[in-house]
Write a structure and sequence with these properties.
single chain, alpha+beta, 3 helices, 3 strands, about 35% helix
């Protein structure tokens, strides 16, 4: 269905046509992360450095998004990511 792709493209299109919008931000999660909460930053850093490729982070960064920082306690029910989101811009 590629709903995520359509949603991303639509949000970016709206941002381009609105002169008041400077940038688009979002909070995503790591799809392939398997580790402890203290290992998540290193995992994200490794993705940014090109050492590994997380599917969900790649979906965004391959289209131009930059990883800005982790967002602790963003989604407490996300046990795999220890409740932490990844802020992208």
């Amino acid at each position: 269905l590629h709903i995520g792709t359509e949603l991303r493209n639509f949000a970016l299109h709206l941002a381009r046509v609105d002169p008041k919008v400077d940038s688009v931000i979002g909070v995503t999660r790591c799809h392939d992360f398997k580790g402890t909460a203290t290992e998540l930053q290193a995992y994200v850093d490794d993705h940014v450095a090109g050492k590994i490729q997380d599917r969900t982070l790649y979906f965004h960064t391959n289209y131009g998004a930059k990883v800005r920082r982790l967002v602790p306690k963003f989604r407490p029910e996300d046990k795999a990511n220890h409740g932490t989101g990844v802020l992208i811009q």
